[in-house]
Amino acid sequence: MGLAEIRELIKPVIKEVDFSYLSGKVVALDAFNALYQFLAAIRQPDGTPLKDSKGRITSHLSGLFYRTKNLIEYGIKVIYVFDGKHPEFKKKEQELREEQRKKMEEKYKKAIEMGIKGDLKKYAEFTSKLEFNMVDESKELLEAMGVPYVQAPSEGEAQAAYLVKKGIADYVGSQDYDSLLFGGLRVARNLTISGKRKVRGVEVDINPEIAELNDILNYLKLDYKKLIWFALIVGTDYNPDGIPGIGVKTAYELVKNNNDPEKLFKYVGWDKYYKEISWKELEEFFEDPPVIEINKEDIKFGEVNEEKIRKILIDEHDFSEDRVNKAIEELKNAYRKGSQKNILSFFGK
């Protein structure tokens, strides 16, 4: 929602880069966003997720381990940020997502009954559900990998934006641009998905994308508050329908040419569509969300616990021993290279 809806409008200031561009940078990754991607994308040809011998889903662990290892090999320092308690006014968005998931489950079941193999994976991708035990498993694996994580009190994107604003991280890593609404200065997309994706049946390369808040504001000729108004009219996670009947371009013109939010939201009929939440409450939530105060020295990178990784992936979840051991060595080498690079840069080499 929100800035995802205006991507075409801000496309000229979105930069496509390669992973080397982010080498040496710290990325605060939206953990739930990444885990849902892994659950959706890492599946068998029939659409079923990866499972161990006890029938427990392991797609999230596979994506978390191998994809995070790849990012570290690119020289990227990763901090995962987990969601806490969602605000009450996010309930409608969560209900819509659950409704969509159930619809896709029905379509998936019908495709199986009809023997339509081509549609199985497409529908299955939208049936993913992140369970509490998956979150706990993910945190345990990250600890074993030497990858720090932060437990947000509320929205993970807000906490990640805080880390960037404070200079602890350079980018928020998420498929959504909504962290910009929380004042996140820079967002990197396409970090935790595979390098290929089918678009209209054609396989295309998917590269990282960078968006910077100041570039967007300058390009749109809006200030930060107006960007929030714009997103609220188009639709955010907290008012997913936006204002019915008002498209992106109309919303942009309205916001750009109006300096009085009271008149603006009265004109678009906010109170008609949102009786339980005011635009002002949402504006204040974006400007000052609940976050945990953190300092740079609180974040530790690079202490790999090999035995714990093996226990989680091989002993408990039947991952390939050879593949896991190979990945552990690659992870350790990546950390060593990162340490050597830091020493050389200290001496100006």
From TrEMBL:
Domain XPG-I: 143-222
Top-rank taxon: Archaea
Xref: InterPro entries: 5-3_exonuclease_C_sf, Flap_endonuc, Flap_endonuc_arc, HhH2, PIN-like_dom_sf, XPG-I_dom, XPG/Rad2, XPG_CS
An MF annotation (GO) of this entry: magnesium ion binding
Sequence positions that bind Mg(2+) 1: D30, D83, E155, E157
GO aspect biological process, one term: DNA replication, removal of RNA primer
Residues that coordinate or bind Mg(2+) 2: D176, D178, D237
Group of enzyme by EC: hydrolase
Comment on bound cofactor: Binds 2 magnesium ions per subunit. They probably participate in the reaction catalyzed by the enzyme. May bind an additional third magnesium ion after substrate binding.
Pfam family, one: XPG_I
Annotated EC: 3.1.-.-
SUPFAM superfamilies, sorted: 5' to 3' exonuclease, C-terminal subdomain (SSF47807), PIN domain-like (SSF88723)
XPG N-terminal domain location: 1-104
Region (Interaction with PCNA), start-end ranges: 339-347
Cofactor(s) the protein needs: Mg(2+)
Subunit structure: Interacts with PCNA. PCNA stimulates the nuclease activity without altering cleavage specificity.
Family: Belongs to the XPG/RAD2 endonuclease family. FEN1 subfamily.
Role: Structure-specific nuclease with 5'-flap endonuclease and 5'-3' exonuclease activities involved in DNA replication and repair. During DNA replication, cleaves the 5'-overhanging flap structure that is generated by displacement synthesis when DNA polymerase encounters the 5'-end of a downstream Okazaki fragment. Binds the unpaired 3'-DNA end and kinks the DNA to facilitate 5' cleavage specificity. Cleaves one nucleotide into the double-stranded DNA from the junction in flap DNA, leaving a nick for ligation. Also involved in the base excision repair (BER) pathway.
Identification of the protein by name: Flap endonuclease 1
Source organism per UniProt: Nanobsidianus stetteri
Native organism taxonomy: Archaea, Nanobdellota, Candidatus Nanoarchaeia, Nanoarchaeales, Nanopusillaceae
